[in-house]
Amino acid sequence: MTKTDGIGALGLLSGGLDSQLAVRVLQQQGIAVRTVVFDSPFYSIDAAVKAAAALQVPLRIYDFTEDIIDLVEHAPHGFGKCMNPCIDCHARMLRQAGELLEEEGCRFLFTGEVLNERPMSQTRRAMLLVAQDSTFADLVLRPLSALALPPTRPELEGWVDRARLLELNGRRRTAQFALAKEFGLQSYPSPAGGCLLTEPNFCVRLKELREHEGYSDRRLVRLLRVGRHFRLPSGVKLVIGRDEADNARVSAMAADDYELVLTRDRPGPTGLLPAEASPQALQEAAAVVAFYAKCPPEGTEAIEVRRGGELLPPLESAPLTAARIEACRIG
Ligand code: SF4
């Protein structure tokens, strides 16, 4: 039994290797680790759920949608290469996690961040700024780089043994891979990826939505990660499934005030008009659906339109040309 045994710590778990290592480094000294992941339309929590199960640590899922949309609209510390407000996002996650400390029975926060591993959010300046902005600065421990950073309260108070923390620094991940082996960690996703706000094509869609409908309808924000997107000449947005699984997702996102546009006589893509559409918009959507249903240029396709449970009058449409498809495609 050491004096750190049983002290609770709440960690931000992405499911990536670094966050898993941070869990194990603290568990090694008897800390009772709990974790939290931040769910949003831009970030899949699947890796975190899988990692928490493998590590056998409790995982709390926090709905971060309102926070991240707020930051995408206004990021005081700016954006990375795309629309990723990483510094403000990290700070907000730590702030929200800090608010959970008492409820989770934990004394301090920790993350798997490694000094200088990422250019925007993991420089010394950025890491200190993030902790400061979170309003829980003295309670934010980075176990993997703690020895390269100023001591935090958990170290000064003896809640953790600083001597058993690490001094990782830089982009090379050799030390992390060696540690993963030592800890028997076998499954972890690649460090890049996971956040759609870092993907250029996704950000084209996100900006386009801001210019037209804005972000106030959260359903439209959630739709951004599904299928192909078009801005029709009438100004209405159209989303089309790419394959069967996508079609199912598109259909599942339809609401009573959205129209579904489908081929009537043979399999084809499912189109979704997330608005009460005019006859002109429905006809334009039918032409896009006919194109992706591979209707020959000289032919026409029978199209069915549904709103909620109701069947609207059917349409007949020639396919749009490839050039016009490209002209109205978003991202
Ligand atoms: S990559 Fe995405 S989830 Fe991660 S800190 Fe940046 S904005 Fe937030």
Report the portion of residues in β strands: 15-25%
Q: What order do the helices and strands follow? A: EHEHEHHEHEHHHHEEHEEHEEHE
Strands of the widest sheet, in order across it, are: 11-10-8-9-7-6-12
Looking at how many chains there are and whether they match, the oligomeric state comes to single chain
Structural class: alpha/beta
Mean pLDDT: 94
Largest sheet: 7 strands, antiparallel
What is the second-level CATH architecture of the largest domain?
A: 3-Layer(aba) Sandwich
Total beta strands: 12
Kindly identify the CATH topology of the largest domain. Answer: Rossmann fold
In angstroms, what separates the terminal alpha carbons? 57 Å
Could you name the ranges where pLDDT drops below 50 across 5 or more consecutive residues?
none
Name the hetero compounds present: iron/sulfur cluster
Please bin the fraction of helical residues: 25-40%
What is the domain tally?
A: 2
Rounded to the nearest angstrom, the radius of gyration is: 24 Å
**Quick one: CATH class of the largest domain?**
Alpha Beta
Number of helical segments with 4 or more residues: 12
